[in-house]
């Protein structure tokens, strides 16, 4: 009886839960996103030369970054992004005058296989002396047909 009561209350609870009001709160942005940043690195010792600058007004982003490649060219990337066109980038390669191209020298590695001299031991075995003698007597073997016998 208690099971039927619990089952009935559960069914009523599930039926009433479908009609509960829900509160939906829409959050609106106070102001469109605005930022502007830039940085640059110029390290003559390592040859690391790069920079970036970017600015955003609402959903429109514009920026540029540059870097010096190892082959002596400057790579310049101008990019824009907005809701209508998505991300677009224009890449240029500009030769640099007076830029030293750093050549990395890889040391030549020679492989020398190890030489292992192994002296195999010389095994000397004494050959056993065997003498074959004739048997003292020859045994004769005889067979007879089997016979069935019963003992009571």
Could you describe the 3D structure shown?
By secondary structure, the protein is mostly beta strands. It has a domain at 39-98: Single Sheet (S-adenosyl-L-methionine-dependent methyltransferases), CATH 2.20.130. It contains 1 helix and 5 strands; from the N terminus they run αβββββ. It has a 5-stranded antiparallel β-sheet, with no helix packed on it. The protein is flat, with a radius of gyration of 49 Å.
Could you spell the SSE succession in H and E letters? HEEEEE
Poorly predicted runs of 5 or more residues: none
What is the count of DSSP helices, taking H or I runs of 4+ residues? 1
CATH architecture of the domain at 39-98: Single Sheet
The number of strands is: 5
Q: What name does CATH use for the topology of the domain at 39-98?
A: S-adenosyl-L-methionine-dependent methyltransferases
Strand content: 25-35%
Order of strands across the biggest sheet?
1-2-3-4-5
* Amount of helix: 10-25%
**In one word, what is the shape?**
flat
**How much is the radius of gyration in Å?**
49 Å
* Text of the CATH class of the domain at 39-98: Mainly Beta
Helices and strands: which structural class? mainly beta
Overall pLDDT level: 83
Distance between the termini: 83 Å
**Largest pleated sheet:** 5 strands, antiparallel
Signal peptide: 1-17
Keywords: Cuticle, Signal
InterPro entries: CHIT_BIND_RR_consensus, Insect_cuticle, Insect_Cuticle_Struc_Prot
GO molecular function: structural constituent of cuticle
